[in-house]
Amino acid sequence: MITKNDIYNDRNKQGLKMKKILVVDDVRENLIAIKETLEDLMPDCLVLTAQSGKEGLKTAKAKQPDTILTDINMPGMDGFEVCKKLNEDETTKHIPIMIFTGSKTDSESRIKCLEAGADVFLTKPIDTGELTAQINVLFRIKEAEDKLRAERELLDEKVKERTKELQKANKSLKQDITERKQTEKALQESEQLNRTVIDNSPIGISVRDKNGTLLLSNKAWQKLWGLSNKEISDYHKPRKKLVFNDKDSYLSNHLDKINNVYKTGGEYYIKELKLPYTKKNTADWISQYFYAIKDDKGNVQRVVVLTKDITNRKKAEEELRIGRERLKTANSILRHDIANDVIVIKSALDIYRDEQDETMLDEIEKRVEKSLNTIKKQRDREQFIDSHTYLDEYEIEQVVHDIIKNYPDIKINVTGTGKAYADNAIYSVFENIISNAIKHGKTTKLDIGIGYNEDYCEIRFTDYGIGIPDEFKYKIFEEGFQYGETGHTGIGLYIVQQTVEDYDGIVFVEDNKPNGVVFVIRLRKIIER
Question: What is the pTM of this model?
Answer without folding.
Answer: 0.40
